[in-house]
Each structure stands twice: as structure tokens, then as C-alpha cells.
Amino acid sequence: MRYIMRTTDISYADAENLLQDIFIKIYRYIHEYDERYSFSSWVYRIAHNMIIDDYRKNKKDADNISLDDEEYKNIVDSLTDWNSPHNDLKRSDVRWCVQKAISSLIQDYREALILKCIEWYSYEEISDILKIPVWTASTLVNRAKKQLKENLEKLKCNY
């Protein structure tokens, strides 16, 4: 559920329905799972594909993949050590900058960055999930980080 809510802009109820559909698909195709590979990567790939299918079915723009406000708050809080109340405004500004910079990334970069830096998947797992070579996963993450830095600089987010 967290992955669906983190990577889409659909309502909670729609996310629950999509999650139910994902579980049904996993149940139907469990016999096709190859035990030589990571089960979590296989499940993640099914979820990823069904999210894209849902976008296509509902004619939504797949570039709207984003993190929710709580995720941005957690990212900013992990980057900062501002516990005093007078830093609340600054923390809010940083959160806005990070949210804007990540949402400005192209979908491939955004997805790879979220998988690596927020979900903590290895490059091998990202490779399995996105069905790309490991070196491509690494390249996407590195390019995403570079683009994220440039986006933050354009936004004048120098904290």
C-alpha cells in the first residue's frame, strides 16, 4: 500500500482497490514465480506493472508519480537536525524544495531514485523490478541524483 500511495496520486480508496487487484494477480500467478529470484522483486514488479496499467486504463498521466507530504517530511527530517521550533519555517521550506525537485525529475529517474534512496533496494533488486540491466539501474540513480541537485540549485534551495 505504501508503494502505491508513494508513487501515485490516486485516492486511498482507489489505492486499496488496486492493492486488492495486485494480491489477486499474485495469487493467480504464484505458480509462475521462479524461486531463483527474489520474491519481493517479483511482487514489486507486478505492483509496478499494475500501477502503470491502472494509469493507462484511467487515462492518467504516468508522470504524476510522487511522494506524499509525510514522505517528504521524513526525507527532510532525516537530512536535517533542526529540533528547535524556530527552525519549523526553514524545515517547511526545505520540504517544499525537495518535493518540487523530486517531482520535476523524469519518471524513470524519479522511480529509480525512490527505489534506491527511499525504499533502500539494491541495484540488483531495482534491475529486477524495472526489468533493466543492473548498470542501467545504477546509471538512472546517478543521473537522478545529479538532476535532483541541479533542480535544487535552480530552486535556490541552499540549506
From TrEMBL:
<dbReference type="InterPro" id="IPR036388">
    <property type="entry name" value="WH-like_DNA-bd_sf"/>
</dbReference>
<keyword id="KW-0805">Transcription regulation</keyword>
<dbReference type="Pfam" id="PF08281">
    <property type="entry name" value="Sigma70_r4_2"/>
</dbReference>
<dbReference type="InterPro" id="IPR013249">
    <property type="entry name" value="RNA_pol_sigma70_r4_t2"/>
</dbReference>
<dbReference type="InterPro" id="IPR014284">
    <property type="entry name" value="RNA_pol_sigma-70_dom"/>
</dbReference>
<dbReference type="InterPro" id="IPR013324">
    <property type="entry name" value="RNA_pol_sigma_r3/r4-like"/>
</dbReference>
<protein>
    <submittedName>
        <fullName>Uncharacterized protein</fullName>
    </submittedName>
</protein>
<dbReference type="GO" id="GO:0003677">
    <property type="term" value="F:DNA binding"/>
</dbReference>
<dbReference type="GO" id="GO:0016987">
    <property type="term" value="F:sigma factor activity"/>
</dbReference>
<keyword id="KW-0804">Transcription</keyword>
<comment type="similarity">
    <text>Belongs to the sigma-70 factor family. ECF subfamily.</text>
</comment>
<dbReference type="GO" id="GO:0006352">
    <property type="term" value="P:DNA-templated transcription initiation"/>
</dbReference>
<dbReference type="InterPro" id="IPR007627">
    <property type="entry name" value="RNA_pol_sigma70_r2"/>
</dbReference>
<dbReference type="InterPro" id="IPR039425">
    <property type="entry name" value="RNA_pol_sigma-70-like"/>
</dbReference>
<feature type="domain" description="RNA polymerase sigma-70 region 2">
    <location>
        <begin position="3"/>
        <end position="60"/>
    </location>
</feature>
<feature type="domain" description="RNA polymerase sigma factor 70 region 4 type 2">
    <location>
        <begin position="96"/>
        <end position="148"/>
    </location>
</feature>
<keyword id="KW-0731">Sigma factor</keyword>
<dbReference type="Pfam" id="PF04542">
    <property type="entry name" value="Sigma70_r2"/>
</dbReference>
<dbReference type="InterPro" id="IPR013325">
    <property type="entry name" value="RNA_pol_sigma_r2"/>
</dbReference>
